[in-house]
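To whoever picks this up:

The parser on our side crashed when reading a file containing two proteins. I've narrowed it down to the boundary between the first structure block and the second sequence. Both blocks are reproduced below exactly, byte for byte. First block:
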Amino acid sequence: MRILHLDTGRELRGGQRQVLLLMRALREQGVEQTLLARAGGPLLQAAGAEGFDARPITLAAVFRRSGGVGIVHCHDGRSHALAAIGSRRPFVVSRRVAFPPGRGWLDRWKYSRAAAYLAVSEYAAAQLIAAGVGKPKIHVVRDAIVPPAVVSDYTGGVTALDMDDPLKGGELLRSIRTPVNLTTDLEAGLRTASVFLYLSRMEGLGSAALLAMAYGVPVVASRVGGLPEVVRHGEHGFCVGNGTEEIDDALRSLIEDPERARAMGRRAREWVTGECHAERIVRRTLEIYREIAR
């Protein structure tokens, strides 16, 4: 089986990192793959550096390359549109966003074209169902993680991603009273974090939260989208409303009780390693590929 991956992302964010992780794991299974991604973008460069067949994405390239594969896998909305128009083979779509699909006739046509949807959460799946996508086409396949060999040493206080995305709670981070260490290198930050803070206005799942859990770090996350499905309130950390007082209270309860925080982190690591390990996610993805190919 040969897979053609499509992604048009401008940055190397959670979705693009998931593409790389999936491609690495599929390569270990002996699956042949090609990636079409944004010309000059970080995903195209990263995949090329790892030895993958990676080329710039255009509608013509989708039409040409899809003819020689078994399955086309779209990893974002724009690539979904390109596949709907130009793919010569069945295609599946990873649905990582929390907002509902459009309801216009063109949207309905585009969403009817996919052979299957891989929704990252029950919440994302519900958005597809509400938009009229049939349940048999929808499979919940969470983002994958490769568990690190060691957990955090818990010396770094509260850590959060330094992002300028207006939907990722930047204004909330500036308004809370609790000191927060901002990082652009998430894995480096998680090696010392005692708590991971993930604030968002809208979230399909939250791969950054999953990675924090894999490092044994308890998470304080916004109670939106698919986050409550993975950050179990009171078990792996806290899912809270986006009010500054509620956020500060949750952080303070973990900072002031480090033994409880570490116990939550241990439970979080155990859960995410079992439910979201890359081997399990790739095995499920391959099952869907083969089902569609048949």
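<<boundary where parser fails>>
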Amino acid sequence: MAKTFKNFIGGVWVAPTTGQYFDNRNPADTTDLIGRFPDSGAKDVAAAVRSATEGFAVWSRTPAPARGDILRRVGDLLVARKEALANAMTREMGKVLAEARGDVQEGIDTAYYAGAEGRRLFGRTVPSELRAKWAMSYRRPIGIAGLITPFNFPMAIPTWKMFPALVCGNSVIIKPSEDVPHTVHQLVEILLEAGLPPEVIQLVHGRGQTVGKPLVEHPSVSVISFTGSTATGSVIGETCGRLHKRLSLEMGGKNAMIVMDDADLDLALDGVLWGAFGTTGQRCTATSRLLVHRKVHDRFVTRLADAAADLKLGDGRDPKSQVGPLIHEASRSKVERYVGYGLEDGATLASGGKRSGGGRFAHGYFYRPTIFVGVKPNHRIARQEIFGPVLSVIRFNTYAEAVRINNDVAYGLSSSIYTRNVALAFKALRDLDNGITYVNAPTIGAEAHLPFGGVKQTGNGHREGGWEVYDFYSETKACYIDYSGTLQRAQIDNYDH
């Protein structure tokens, strides 16, 4: 019999006030029931806020290096349980086991990085314009951080958000995707084992409308960090703007990999296969557009189509599998719909374009890696985010044309260029309108110690990861200490006129 899980609110594991639960099933085999998870509501969110308020009062007064010590212990526990966590993640989300291990490793890297930042929450000391006066700034906690995370990186993205928020001294309420609730459940257990005060972390399972919405709207939640669709992010942005909340949005992408005529085609082939079909294309940074110079287009596309057709689909826990399932039937149906759009708009299928059903695929959400050629920049499959294993190949003639095609979409997350020309590589770093650009690597592969995020409809200017995220989760306070013993009036009487 499958286990029934609970929320973590007020320092204890509790059932949802709604009395309702939802099933969490293996997307590679829907007969495999992982567990039943709370289908919570606004009352559960309100209880979490009350507890997080108490937790913030204690945690914000805890020295930042001590907060970092706990996160380092979290990293140690993640290392010790990496394989078990990766196996559970693959069962829950579907990505192949090697990728799940990488997902856990991102959590490990983020834990150690955040732990060290507990001793590096720098302010600034600057000279005052007045005599006998000290001027400085420091970073202080904000309050309760509400975190809403997606399904595709069940460990990495929650840790990207949670660990910096915690080391900065905030308390946290997290609502993970209802598609992958078990991984965050395990993460919260690890945080508690590492010594995090129980009231500092609240876990509320549920759906966007019934948990995410009241979390965003609650007046006592000062910070919201959301990763998900641009449409949902726009609604959250309107709410947070009206309520004057600090907000970080990480949303869609339509990322292009550019292959110049001087590129190492063997390297580019490996890169596009990994970028387009890793995680079954379910990454905001997935390579969903391939721009190929006309001089190498035909021979490169032939090799690519053959290689994609050879990719092995299957349960991610099978070491032979290279591509896992989509997360649910709605995602697979969306992929099918966009394959139809591609054909309607005049593109040609070079590989894939169909479900894998029957036999060992009968109870999973599998879809063949799909490649379209003859795609034009105005085709729907070249402009809209699909979030599945569909690659649109576009032929171009010049570097300038490739840049225009890359930039002429609503999103601006990631891009890449393959070239042996060093000057052209640096031009691409300047010209491609994205938050991230890779040279001689695909559009995926962000590292925990660099800022992650994009421009245009991908985000709202804030970044996950790296040093910038610590500014997001903290307030800067300016401080002045006047020890002159007299009234000194800045900007009024300290300059001769």
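After patching the parser it read the second block fine. The domain at 255-439 is CATH 3.40.309.10 (Aldehyde Dehydrogenase; Chain A, domain 2). The mean pLDDT is 97.
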